[in-house]
DNA sequence: CAGACCGAGTGTAACGATTCACGCCCCCGG
DNA sequence: CCGGGGGCGTGAATCGTTACACTCGGTCTG
């Protein structure tokens, strides 16, 4: 009992069905049957084969299997940032739905880097995944369309589809941006800051659009009423740094800030705290996503809620159903919901 | 220009090297050379082949490629809970290190479910991943050892290795548990609550061990000084519910609570707030991990910090280096660090 | 009793890319 | 003019699995 390796000693190679067949004294076809259609094999034979499998600790070679039979129960997903709870919550939704059908999720994070995103998409395709769920960044839409042209199911996540027959799950971000802005204006603020990411990201562009529309609807001139702060990174440090830049900027400082997501809002709040600016007294803050910790912060964060888990679940569901019954392409759009908390309430 | 599909019309099948070769008027061997050793191909030939590849929008079949050549630049990782920032931060570290060597990460979340974890591990092996990084749950260690026996590199993450030649990256959780307890005792608390997960999880068992050791060192009887609350789930809701149970329990209520991680501490704090129990006045709280939002909560959370990103990075680095130069198995252990904040400071 | 049928198992041709031992051609030096 | 390389390409063998057409006893049916 001093063996350090379980099972028989390997001779440097994985055993194959052939090895199993030889050991069990049957043909490879039978081994394959035991593996895939056990009901078609006599119990005694099956037992012999199973014994041989255990003996050799044989593990199916997925590459060969897939090469021959084409099918693969894997779905790839590319999200913008795996460290953002917004995306991990969606990932959970995807995974749970996929697990129901014995599918597996391959999750990758593009870090908003189109090149990295492209690399992952290519990898997925080379591996022959059944489908892809992606939160596309700028430019990758073409790649996705090309993949779809080659027969890979694609579902856009957190992005409304530009094409009628391309399924997507999204949230009305223009509406969400409007919701936040409307709320801030209702609180009496007349000059707002918008800490936003690159406009090449649809989410950022749309939320901005909502801001501008709302300003216009109230007869406000953006040049007067809006200070836009472009963020270096859509994480806490980016938000922190952006807020510092806002406070240091020339001209009258706004009395309210809308952050493009909760993680950056977290950073912004940190900067405000460190600089001794009171929230919401001197600066009201609104975030976006309503992630897990939003309501537990020093000043609970007003945020625009998105049904993250449900979005992920729905996207996976659409992907699976689409393949299964050739369902028509749906384009689901959820409505965002403003959750008002202390960070934006002056009274 | 009304084609809805980019590229030439597919006849229902992916083009293969053979198709490319035919179109380019060369042999399949040459196509393969263009793909893998472009320097060995004359520029004019290469151009022809590349044109054909574009024309057909050919995509390599990774299964066939790997079947023949064996190698695959993919590493699999299984973490306990993808929605916990502790794990996603580690995942980022892994991914970044892997990207340096053009490796790709396949990330899966076992939800502390051994069966699900086993499924993912088997899947990885069937796919022939180069190595596996895993935060093992109960029982899966055998599976991992078996995989290693079959030639797959394994690195344990957030788990000290039980075997000298099995590499691992971990944090001294006994020490971490002691740190937290020592701190709470130093604050004058004499009766502590410990909101913990299942002891089948090494992290939970070790931190508990640290708690008990420290209690003993101070001459305290656990039966008197410790109230253990088993958590249903290691997430915010679990922590919330656990704290409510604690407050509702019979006997003198402790004046301090140690939560096994920050996410559950978040939930516990939420329950305390909702029930109107002041922190740290009526109940001091300490968490574990020091995740991103710990210092931004209503009452900034005292926590035991772990170098998450670095842990992930190191694990990936060990995996890659091990294969590359047959380096000896290291077992890295990081030291946890107590970060004291308002949630546990009585003065 | 012939023929159909059945369950159980066999053997082999794919699947698509890579590899490798060889050809072929052309140029160069002796 | 011949031998020898080098540079470019060729094409068949191969990886491990699955699908499929097939064999082989034996039992049922009319």
TrEMBL record, chains A, B:
Keywords for this protein: DNA-binding, Transcription, Transcription regulation
Domain HTH lacI-type: 15-69
SMART domains found in the cross-reference section: HTH_LACI (SM00354)
Pfam family, one: LacI
Gene3D superfamilies, per the entry: 3.40.50.2300, lambda repressor-like DNA-binding domains
Annotated PROSITE patterns: HTH_LACI_1, HTH_LACI_2
PANTHER family: HTH-TYPE TRANSCRIPTIONAL REGULATOR GALS (PTHR30146:SF109), LACI-RELATED TRANSCRIPTIONAL REPRESSOR (PTHR30146)
Name of the protein in question: LacI family transcriptional regulator
Organism: Occultella glacieicola
